[in-house]
User: What shape does this take?
Amino acid sequence: MRPAEDIDELIKKLRYKANVETHDRVLGNVMRALDESEKQKTGAAAPDIWRTIMKSPITKIAAAAVIIIAVMIGLHRFTGSIDGATVALAEVRQALDEVKYMHSESYDEEQHFQISWSGSGIYCHKAVDGSCVYVTSDPDRKVEYAPKTKVITISWPGDGYWGAHETPLQTIKRRLDHHVEYSKRIETNRGELNGQEVDVVKIYGTREDANEIITMWCDPLSHLPLKLHRRDITIAYSYPEEAPADIYELGAPRSAIVISTVPSEEVQKLLNKFFRWRKSALKHKNIENMFGFLTPARIGQIIEHEYAQQHGLICLEEFHQGELRTQPGLPLIKSLPSRRLYFFDPKKDYMWVRMENYEVPEASWQINKNWLPEDQRNFKPRHTIIDILEFERGKEGVWFPVKVKEYDGEK
Amino acid sequence: MLEDRLLLWRFKRGNREAFRLIYEKYADALLTLAANLLNDKADAEDVVQDVFISFVQSVQKFHLRGSLKGYLTTCVANRSRDYLRKNMRRQALTVNRLQQATTTVKNPVQLVICSEQLQKLSRAMAELPYEQREAIVLRLHGEMRFKTIAKLKNISIKTAQSRYRYGLDKLRSIRKAR
Assistant: This one.
């Protein structure tokens, strides 16, 4: 009888090595299955990338923070090799997957800063002027505090926030993915930060500036970034287990007036259908000019309307306060208070097929009648209608407007 | 291991070349494992193919906790077992030869076996009860610890060790008898 060790060794020699044809066949079948799987996934709605740049000063600094990462990411081109620096950066990225919340504080040379928390379905930030924003995905709410007016506004972001924005944590992850994939030269060394031993990741040169140096200090154990510096902007990161529970914990006073513009469940459902159609349609055709600017504001109510009844449509009524807008190179744009009626067609994927706009000076629904720098009575009331006259259906069955007519509703 | 994580990561982000590298790295080891468990080359290829298909289809939700090799090995072990059970049921329905189905080599594995000695060993392996064969294959080809095998099969470590030991003893006696 042979010793057991011999049998062990003999069993290990029972190896199966498939020929090239077998591997090609198996690999081909797996890839076909992957193609099918991806086709099915593309049928579902894909999340948009950051398209909206928020206008607040807070967001400008937030954007600057994002740009730091973005620039950092653009440096390198992945060569196929897996070197130590790429691995180090991969570890940083991987560590970010595990965090519950990311807290960041951003400073520029003038010590402007924003403080934000992001992760687990919330994003919130506050600025030095005391303004705060608190966004949650469930429930889908955006809560903003304006210190000048001492008003807290609760709104329903709908498809418009989580679908079109990224939190700083999401953005860093996406950018680092890109960075690992396309990186070219990074150096990692041991260093010190506030008396603590850290990994210092240095990136030399950017697309814009070949002499630029970006530095990231990372915890050697958790691999999480603790600090990032580029030019005159520094961001400090930490990873708390908890984030502020609401806008009050973020800094808004409990004495603030609360205004809710959250529409009814019925309106939310209707608008979600419209947003879904808009997203599908935008993938195939540029209808941004029409449906980008004339999108319901997520504040309306569904009403009975003769035109809607006659044509089998659903009418959404919105009241707007009017606004003053500035655009570079253009005189001040004044929009009067208005009542808007959107007529959605359930037979055409819930796109709206008619929009009526009534501009009304000194409208009864106006909260502040003195908002205009000049007398409202100088403005004439206007009634305009936009009708979609002709439609087309895309390959995947999505409806598109083809012929649109805008005219004076009083004529 | 870190290389696997990086490959997995790149694959998650749509890099198919990364998957090809994962496949090339582990396909032969997994085929060996499945072939030794199932005693059939074609069945082994089916099982490995199924495992990789499930893997690519669920990769976006997949979060690697241990080693990728360990994960794929476990998948192959589980699927081989399911495959065998399914075949047993099928055969039981058509022919009342359940006992024969569990012990008979229906199509000797086309292993790269140069020597007669290894061919005999392969046949002897096929005659082992499945649990013992599985313990041996997972230990020697899957390079799994007894603790891991025990956890995978939901048995005690001692049972896993016994199955392995009895399996080897039985192999020795089968070979001796011949």
About this structure: Chain B is about 75% helix and 0% strand. Chain B has a mean pLDDT of 78.
